[in-house]
Amino acid sequence: MTKNYDTVVIGGGTAGYVAAIKLSQLGQSVAVVEKSKLGGTCLNQGCIPTKSFLKSGEMIENMKTASRFGLENHTPSFDIKNINSVKDKVVNQMQNGIKYLLDKNKVDVIEGTATILGPSLFSPLAGAVSVSYEDESMESEVLVNDQVIIASGSRPIELPFLSFDHKVVLSSNDLMHLENIPKKVALIGGGVIGVEFATILSSFGSEVTLIEAADRLLIQEEKDASKAVEKSLKDKGVRVLTGLTLNPDDIEIKDDHGEIVVNSEKESYDKIIVAVGRQPNTDQLGIQNTKAQVTGKGTIEVNEYYQTKESHIYAIGDVINTPQLAHVAIEEAVIAAEHIADQKPLTLDYNKIPRCVYTSPEIASIGMTTEALKENGIDFKTHKLPLQTIAKAVIENGAEGFIKLNVSPSGDILGATIVGAHATELINSISIAAFMNASTLELSSATFAHPSVGEIIKEVGLDAEDIAIHV
Predict the structure, then answer these.
(1) 220 and 147 in a common domain
(2) Which residues are catalytic?
């Protein structure tokens, strides 16, 4: 059986459902093929459930240190099942919202596995999509289209010598369904995923060892931001081991635990969590049936409008070589959809995309770090102010941190980093300024509410103009 659509979107995650809705709004008939759950990694195994866990962990930490606010300290009792229930309630609410939006915009959602076909009797061009179903009694069908968007997302990377057994060796996905809090955990990978899970598990009471091969955590961020997170994790009892590369001989997996050799000593862990990044889901889509090019890392090559070598086949989100961030996927989805609909979209400036790490303190950044600017020989000056100058940050016990602004000689914002409470909210103001090409003079001329943590943004703008008041 065949069905005809203007565009078929493979994947109902953040990139896929946004592209589908936008295309429908632009007058196209659209189908989304999703083999698992709508919302993809972000909603089901990533951004949203982890933030729910982090909030629960934050509440635990706040109660344990309530004396900071004139209250009695209290170590709360909790059940991971209840914490999971809160997380699931949030996820289900968001999933229902996506279903509603797709239905409202008349997008057909097809629950099945998509395979891209080459030129065939269905279409002279590659790109028709065959859909098979888990229920073998259901006959597969072919979706004939003018365009196809690949938005199939990504999955956790396994180490070559340490496969996920989902019992002792876990992926970040497995952590979404923990039935018990492990007593002792080894976390391999000191990137965003690793440090966030170290924060979560330590708050839940696990004894955490965080292992990173590089010489510091979060190597994509400013060194002082990395140092602040490492100090915070250590203060929470996390053991941080940087510059440690594990080899196959260093790890042995037993039936109910794992053993890792650290500094010539064998250590036992209830769970070993591998968080070394994610790989694109491009290996089982039938891309080889098209002229689209796939790199050695599995990403699909595209142009600035996300077209592959076959101009009617697009790819967006985690399957291409751009930052694996949900807000990036959303922008790519809109641009691809508008391009398909013969609009004239602005292309995306990836140097003006916020990056967020939801640890305690939070890290949020945009643009180039001081290290990157130096490596590229770009002339700049750094302005750095502590959050302790801001009353609202002190009141909220969120004054451990800073804002750093990298500025060109003419006052252009080249990069910014915020470490501290609400950093992931504050960075949006810098994002707007960067998008509007605002100078530090314009940033310093804006009025910010008092008292608010956001006042630090105006203050660093004033500092860049050599007219700071509160420093």
Answers:
(1) no
(2) 450
